[in-house]
């Protein structure tokens, strides 16, 4: 038992080192890619247009500062001051609905966010119960998808007697279909309706479906374009199913990672209850609690009840 | 030959036995499980039906309906709360514009629009033209900012105050996230284990003191919630009050939005240009974020379990109210797919199974396959996937 605990303790520093190393690598690459463009943008936009404008209109310093700060403030709270147009869906019902989706899926674009104190408190409570609800739903959808793939694979086996090959073929097919449907085809729709380039659409799709949600690109926010009435609803459905699909993909990546780390540290024997509790935790982060976990829970039910006495609170229920 | 049994509650139960008509392992299940799933309605031959599972359609439909109702209600409330405030802000902004134009009459409306357009373009590119020129030397993409940005990508918080604008940066960001998010989840998994070890130690300690199990469960749960809220939500808000100048409720709002990985980006640490931050400020915040993320994941897991149990109870009640005909095989056939039903009398006698290897895992998960194979090594065991 002590040996197992010692082996377990090995895992965290190595993982921490890998994590920090990965972040550092990403930071360096992004810095190298973005810094030159940023410098260029600053020089071009500000030095030329700004100075030109101030010279031209003979504006006074402090008043101009205040105006600029006012405009920045308004921009941050999402108000466009240009002309008389109002962008599609601020806090009307459609915009609020989209905001609710972005809150409970944890995408959190941020182009729209509550500014009243009561709104913020309600947002916290709303998200506190909405996020588990969303996780449960994504879990269901993911399981249905997996079931469908299994079912098709089995049908193939029946018809063609291919044994293992059918399952592998089915899985690759499912992967490719998912890729097409959720990541590769929607950018075409976006380039038509939003005017983004294909790469921007792909970037937006991935950032949305992985729930990162920067908010630099958001659909339906361009005041110069008209959107068909079905647009936002179709996108909401796409987000839902796409998130479930991407969560499945990420879950498989996690399984690969975990099994490789287990291989490195001989953790194969560590299936004590102490560690299996946190499988539920891991899956809640990906939004998926697959049949594996529930079967673990249920097989544990056959064991004596006393062993549940020191469970972590997450298993206590 | 393997046989599968389906329970009338239409949940995903798959009972396997090699013994034939009877399901000998059934009475070894705990009573709670048996009450939920007994008696099995039909026993069917193996092969295809091994993987046939009832899809729990009522459960799914209820869940989808509940989800959309929740969204609709939330949207209505947000609209009611925010609409008036937004209108007021819009009027204030328009007034500011008007006042400025009145004071500087040499500026035409068109020029003003152009000016604002340029300004907004600059802001969208992350350049804030406030203050004097020396601030242009500080970059948004120095290493410390990029590191923080990489952290927000990998944890899926995604504030958005900083985001890649070049095509190369965007594509790199996608692939960076694709491998970084699983890494992050595995990492947080381990951190969560560490956190729950504390709770287990407390539970053990109380158990040795002789407390009853239910009381221990309740106390450890309370301890988990209370210390978590204190350490991860309340204390940091006080800290942010000092360092960022936010109010206490703004601090709590920021803490929750960050730790739940929603990450709107309306509040971000370390981004106010007029404040001085001590040198290890963001490192401290990063450590807080990591532990807080693990804790909140545990909390959400808890709430998810509560939700699923509530859902099961609701479904069970609904079915008890609206049961059509328990014994009708035909109605069963409509609800379950793709199962073939054979009445019990027509069952073939059991054969010694070489078919054990034919069983594949239900979710194609290697771990699950291991567990299943362990479970099915005994001839009369039952696997439940409810």
Automatic annotation (TrEMBL), chain A:
Signal peptide: none annotated. Residues 295-306 have a biased composition (Basic and acidic residues). GO terms for cellular component: plasma membrane. It is a multi-pass membrane protein. Residues 293-317 are annotated as: Disordered. One of its GO terms (molecular function) is outward rectifier potassium channel activity. It holds the Pfam family Ion_trans_2. Glycans are attached at residue 84. Residues 308-317 have a biased composition (Polar residues). The keyword Transmembrane applies. This is Potassium channel subfamily K member. It comes from Cyanistes caeruleus (Eurasian blue tit).
UniProtKB/TrEMBL annotation, chain B:
Its main location: membrane. GO terms for biological process: stabilization of membrane potential. GO terms for molecular function: outward rectifier potassium channel activity; potassium ion leak channel activity. The chain crosses the membrane at residues 60-81, 143-162, 168-188, 218-239, 251-269, 281-303. InterPro entries: 2pore_dom_K_chnl, 2pore_dom_K_chnl_TASK, K_chnl_dom. Pfam families: Ion_trans_2. Residues 365-375 have a biased composition (Basic and acidic residues). Signal peptide: none annotated. It is a multi-pass membrane protein. Coiled coil: none annotated. This is Potassium channel subfamily K member 16-like. The gene is LOC111929698.
């Amino acid at each position: 038992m002590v040996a197992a605990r010692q082996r377990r303790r090995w895992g965290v520093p190595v993982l921490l080192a890998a994590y920090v190393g990965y972040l550092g690598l990403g930071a360096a690459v992004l810095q190298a890619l973005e810094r030159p463009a940023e410098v260029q943008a600053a020089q071009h936009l500000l030095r030329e247009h700004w100075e030109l404008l101030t010279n031209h209109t003979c504006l006074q310093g402090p008043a101009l500062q205040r105006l600029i700060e006012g405009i920045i403030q308004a921009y941050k709270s999402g108000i466009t001051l240009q002309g008389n147009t109002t962008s599609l869906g601020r806090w009307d019902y459609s915009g609020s609905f989209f905001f609710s989706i972005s809150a409970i899926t944890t995408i959190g674009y941020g182009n729209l966010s509550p500014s009243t104190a009561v709104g913020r408190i309600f947002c916290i409570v709303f998200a506190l119960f909405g996020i588990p609800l969303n996780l449960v739903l994504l879990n269901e959808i993911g399981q249905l998808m997996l079931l469908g793939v299994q079912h098709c694979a089995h049908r193939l086996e029946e018809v063609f007697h291919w044994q293992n090959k059918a399952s592998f073929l089915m899985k690759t097919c499912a992967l490719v279909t998912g890729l097409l449907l959720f990541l590769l085809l929607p950018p075409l729709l976006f380039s038509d309706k939003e005017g983004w380039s294909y790469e921007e659409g792909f970037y937006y799709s991935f950032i949305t479906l992985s729930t990162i949600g920067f908010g630099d690109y958001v659909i339906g926010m361009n005041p110069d374009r008209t959107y068909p009435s079905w647009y936002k609803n179709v996108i909401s459905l796409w987000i839902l199913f796409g998130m479930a699909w991407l969560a499945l993909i990420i879950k498989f990546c996690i399984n690969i990672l975990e099994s490789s780390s287990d291989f490195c540290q001989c953790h194969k024997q560590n299936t004590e209850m102490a560690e299996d509790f946190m499988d539920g935790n891991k899956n809640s982060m990906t939004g998926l609690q697959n049949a594996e976990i529930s079967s673990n829970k249920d097989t544990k039910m056959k064991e004596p009840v006393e062993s549940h006495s020191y469970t972590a609170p997450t298993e206590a229920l | 030959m393997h046989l599968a049994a389906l329970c009338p509650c239409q949940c995903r139960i798959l009972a396997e036995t090699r013994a034939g008509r009877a399901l000998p392992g059934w009475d070894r299940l705990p009573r709670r499980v048996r009450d939920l799933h007994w008696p099995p309605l039909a026993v069917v031959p193996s092969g295809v039906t091994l993987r046939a599972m009832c899809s729990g359609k009522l459960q799914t439909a209820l869940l989808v309906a509940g989800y959309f109702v929740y969204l609709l209600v939330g949207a209505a409330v947000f609209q009611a709360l925010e609409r008036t405030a937004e209108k007021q802000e819009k009027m204030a902004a328009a007034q500011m514009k008007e006042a400025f134009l009145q004071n500087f009459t040499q500026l035409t409306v068109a020029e003003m629009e152009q000016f604002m357009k340029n300004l907004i373009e600059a802001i969208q590119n992350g350049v804030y033209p406030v203050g004097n020129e020396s601030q242009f030397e500080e970059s948004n993409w120095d290493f410390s900012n990029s590191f923080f940005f990489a952290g927000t990508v990998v944890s899926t918080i995604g504030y958005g105050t900083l985001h890649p604008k070049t095509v190369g940066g965007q594509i790199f960001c996608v692939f960076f996230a694709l491998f970084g998010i699983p890494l992050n989840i595995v990492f947080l998994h381990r951190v969560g284990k560490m956190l729950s070890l504390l709770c287990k130690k407390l539970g053990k300690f109380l158990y040795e003191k002789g407390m009853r199990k239910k009381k221990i469960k309740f106390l450890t749960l309370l301890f988990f919630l209370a210390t978590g809220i204190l350490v991860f939500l309340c204390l940091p808000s006080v800290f942010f009050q000092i360092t960022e100048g936010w109010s206490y409720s703004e601090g709590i709002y920021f803490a929750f939005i960050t730790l739940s990985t929603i990450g709107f980006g309306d509040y971000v640490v370390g981004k106010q240009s007029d404040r001085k931050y001590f040198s290890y400020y963001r490192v401290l915040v990063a450590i807080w974020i990591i532990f807080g993320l693990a804790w909140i994941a545990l909390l959400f897991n808890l709430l998810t379990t509560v939700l699923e149990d509530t859902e099961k109870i609701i479904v069970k009640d609904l079915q008890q109210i609206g049961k059509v005909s328990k014994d009708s095989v035909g109605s069963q056939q409509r609800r379950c797919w793709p199962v073939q039903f054979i009445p019990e009398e027509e069952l073939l006698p059991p054969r010694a199974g070489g078919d054990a290897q034919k069983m594949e895992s239900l979710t194609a998960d290697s771990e699950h396959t291991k567990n299943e194979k362990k479970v099915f090594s005994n001839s009369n065991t039952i696997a439940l996937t409810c």
